[in-house]
Design brief:
With 599 residues, this protein is an alpha/beta fold. The chain is 40% helix and 15% strand. The protein contains 23 helices and 18 strands. Helix 3 crosses helix 16 and helix 11 packs antiparallel against helix 13. The chain is globular and about 80 Å long. The mean pLDDT is 97. The structure holds thiamine diphosphate and magnesium ion.
């Protein structure tokens, strides 16, 4: 095969890394790689997105749903710039992604050439673990191997820049051993990471001495649910999760307090407010003001990545190790708890929270409460579904109301919280397992940002899917509601209509236009039926739910109580603020009547 190019070598190497699918968008800077993908005849497959940002977000989604590496390909210049948000999403949520990015010919670099951007500088921060430009054909395989290995080993995005002329060079012969030649291999063997015995002993001592133990469970517990449960039960503890940890923990347990933080539950708020000991498992959750106060709780943290240990809370014992193995080792050192008084108190808070959540979903809203719409999906999600969630108020309703059946994964852009991730993630989930139904929960602002465009991708692909069910819930409130509530809460400002109003758009009608099914619902009585129809449809469905933007995003008590004045002062300045004020007062009353008199 004398006419193989460096580009073919790159594509072959993707195959040896087990890559079946890459996401991307074309451009002359990457055309030799596109040619090699054409010659590869679908192995790996190329998935064309509507925008490089969406392609990068698909790669992140792929990594999250499959546990493998997501791969994205783009051209130089503008294509490269478009990748950034997706790559930062990978960086901040710690998932492995490799980006193959075109570049102008090496012969013109430095001349302010057409579409010339200094890509090493552009990607320096996002791909801090590894960004390398391939300057010689002999370098290509080594750089690709290092990008994959580094992405996997550090759970981060890595970038390979491929100048156009280098892509087109003939593939080099197998190199001879000599100075200046490095021959590398694909593949990564993962280590077993377990803490030292003396650290486990010290951690067990702290945990056994605690009388009111709370757990914070993150995505690092992905393969450790059984062990987390065993430890929690041994300690008579209450459990809350980070947003990223939610899908890896059974929220149906009586001591499951739900998600912690600003968008979390009151049960989680009370758990951390009342505990004297904290065990963090695989979480680097940034909502530190919702942790126990520093000094309030003695704390132990388990994390595979030593850089995260002690990073959010002044812990006493840090355990660097795999969550499942570390908890297993801890368990054998922990005594059974005799007094379950704390556990019973926690279970009481959990019951109260479930009552509050149910009441809220029934609130009198105009015309629909978004909480009701999302809550109605609980119990309807098929056991083999996959869920994606966008950024906006829907993230709150997902965190507070959606009960995921065991094994159902849900993913979102948690730490970067970039709007427009819902549709790209959902597409990545669907393409990874086309025989499973997918549900995407998205706000209207996020739809207008990226979702509308990627529905076009859905419309071009769904006929190939073994299970064509792909349900997109759009919460149509005409508002960037999450931020409207933040304007009130954080600034004490009234909602600024010019920055917050969204232009109208017919989401259901648009779905119909694309040959999908659109269901518009604006009556509480139609909500259940809309879900049932969508989840049994013979094609993708957009449910356009007309929801009330005035439903408040009240942070959970006890912290949320301190925000009431700011909300009320802001609403008092708004024309027509009475409805939102009434809803806020009702929510506050639900919390206040359940406040702990001793607290
Ligand atoms: C790319 C990006 N731009 C801006 C923001 C700030 N932001 C967070 S939520 C939000 C509003 C989302 O609006 P929408 O999708 O309509 O959802 P809603 O909150 O109205 O339900 C905005 C603007 C962001 N997170 N990401
Ligand atoms: Mg909105």
């Amino acid at each position: 095969m004398g006419d193989r190019l460096v580009a073919d070598l790159v594509v072959e190497r993707l195959r040896s890394w087990g890559v079946e699918r890459i996401f991307g968008y074309s451009g002359d800077g990457i055309n030799a790689v596109m040619g090699a993908l054409r010659r590869a005849d679908g192995d790996p497959a190329l998935v064309q997105a509507r925008h490089e940002e969406n392609a990068a977000l698909m790669a992140v989604g792929h990594a999250k749903y499959t546990g493998g590496v997501g791969v994205v390909v783009s051209t130089q210049g503008p294509g490269a710039v478009h990748l950034l948000n997706g790559l930062y999403d990978a960086k901040l949520d710690h998932v492995p992604v490799v980006a193959l990015v075109g570049q102008q010919e090496t012969t013109v670099l430095g001349s302010e050439y057409q579409q010339e951007i200094d890509l090493q500088s552009l990607f320096k921060d996002v791909a801090a673990q590894f960004v390398q430009t391939v300057l010689a054909p002999e370098q290509a395989v080594m750089v690709l191997d290092r990008a994959f290995r580094t992405a996997l080993a550090t759970r981060s995005p890595c970038v390979v820049v491929l100048p156009h002329d280098v892509q087109q060079e003939p593939a080099p012969e197998e190199p001879e051993q000599q100075h200046g030649v490095v021959v590398t291999a694909s593949g990564l063997s993962r280590p077993r990471v377990v803490p030292r015995d003396e650290d486990l002993d010290a951690a067990a001592e702290v945990l056994a001495a605690g009388e009111r133990v709370a757990l914070l469970v993150g995505q690092g517990a992905r393969h450790a649910e059984e062990q987390v449960r065993a430890v929690a039960e041994r300690l008579g503890a209450g459990v809350a999760t980070s947003l990223l940890g939610k899908p890896w923990w059974d929220e149906g347990l009586p001591y499951s307090c739900g998600v912690m933080g600003h968008l979390g539950t009151t049960a989680a708020g009370k758990l951390y407010d009342g505990c004297d000991t904290l065990l963090i498992v695989g979480s680097n959750d940034p909502w530190t003001e919702f942790y126990p106060a520093p000094g309030q709780a003695r704390a132990v943290q388990v994390d595979l990545d030593g850089r995260h240990v002690g990073n959010r809370y002044p812990i006493e014992v840090g355990l660097t190790g795999d969550a499942a193995e570390t908890l297993e080792a801890l368990l054998s050192r922990l005594p059974e708890r005799a007094d379950l008084g704390w556990r019973e108190q926690v279970e009481g808070w959990v019951r109260e929270w479930h009552e509050i959540a149910e009441q809220r979903s029934q609130a009198e809203a105009h015309p629909l409460s978004p909480e009701r719409v999302v809550r109605a999906l609980s119990g309807r999600l098929p056991g083999d579904a996959q869920v994606s969630v966008d950024v906006g108020s829907v993230t709150y309703w997902y965190a507070r109301h959606l009960r995921l059946p065991p094994g159902v994964q849900a993913h979102l852009s948690s730490t970067l919280a970039t709007m427009g991730s819902g549709l790209p993630y959902a597409l990545a989930a669907k393409l990874a397992t086309p025989d499973r139904p997918v549900v995407a929960l998205v706000g209207d602002g996020a739809m207008q940002m990226n979702g509308i465009a990627e529905l076009v991708t859905v419309s071009s692909r769904w006929r190939d899917w073994a299970d064509p069910r792909f349900v997109v819930l759009v919460l149509h409130n005409g508002d960037l509601a999450e931020v409207s509530w933040e304007q009130r809460e954080m600034e004490g400002d009234p909602r600024f209509a010019t920055s917050q109003d969204l232009p109208d758009f017919p989401y259901a009608g648009y779905a119909d236009l694309l040959g999908l099914t659109g269901i518009r619902v604006d009556d509480p009585a139609g909500v259940d039926d809309a879900w049932d129809r969508a989840l049994s449809a013979d094609r993708p469905v957009v449910i356009e739910a007309i929801v009330d933007r005035d439903v408040p995003l009240l942070p959970p008590f006890p912290a949320g109580k301190a925000k009431l004045d700011s909300f009320r002062a802001a609403l008092a300045q708004e024309d027509g603020g009475e409805h939102a004020r009434a809803l806020l007062d009702a929510q506050a009353a639900q919390e206040e009547e359940r406040e702990d008199p001793s607290g």
